[in-house]
Design goal:
By secondary structure, the chain is an alpha/beta fold. The chain has one domain: Dehydroquinase, class II (Rossmann fold). The chain is built from 5 helices and 5 strands. The protein has helices at 19-22, 27-41, 53-63, 82-91, 129-144, and strands at residues 2-7, 44-49, 69-73, 95-99, 121-124.
């Protein structure tokens, strides 16, 4: 099994950006964590991060026929991007949404997830561990399919 792990805008600034919300670990730390979780699950992962909506859409479209599923943290695009929702629906790969922080306890505008509408599950507020949960959930889901 191979998964695409997508990360949206400003996640490249982990460790610097609002550490009281997102912690002090860096994006490199997140990549290492995701690779270790994937190895533990016995799946391959391809990681991609972009601050650009179109690049994320291109990555989702490019996943069709290459990977078995997607783990996505659309970051700020969660609440604004119908384009990411449409791309996820178009490729019809099982996807799991992840958010480092508990978006449900944050600002009102963060309460709607367009990407989540195309996902089989969402993990919020677990920090890096949400990615591990997403990888294992996606593997289990695909194993049963």
């Amino acid at each position: 099994m191979k998964f695409l792990v997508l990360n949206g805008p400003n996640l490249n600034l982990l460790g610097l950006r609002e550490p009281e919300i997102y912690g002090r670990e860096t994006y490199a730390d997140l990549e290492a964590y995701v690779r270790a979780a994937a190895a533990e699950a016995g799946v391959e992962v391809e990681l991609f991060q972009s601050n650009h909506e179109g690049a994320l859409v291109d990555a989702i479209q490019g996943a069709w026929g290459r990977v078995d599923g997607i783990v996505i943290n659309p970051a700020a695009y969660t609440h604004t991007s119908v384009a990411i929702l449409d791309a996820l629906k178009a490729v019809a790969l099982p996807a799991v949404e992840v958010h480092l922080s508990d978006v449900k306890s944050r600002e009102e505008f963060r309460q709607v997830s367009y990407a989540g509408m195309a996902c089989i599950r969402t993990f919020i507020g677990l920090g890096f561990a949400g990615y591990r949960e997403a990888i294992f959930h996606l593997k289990e889901y695909l194993s049963k399919s």
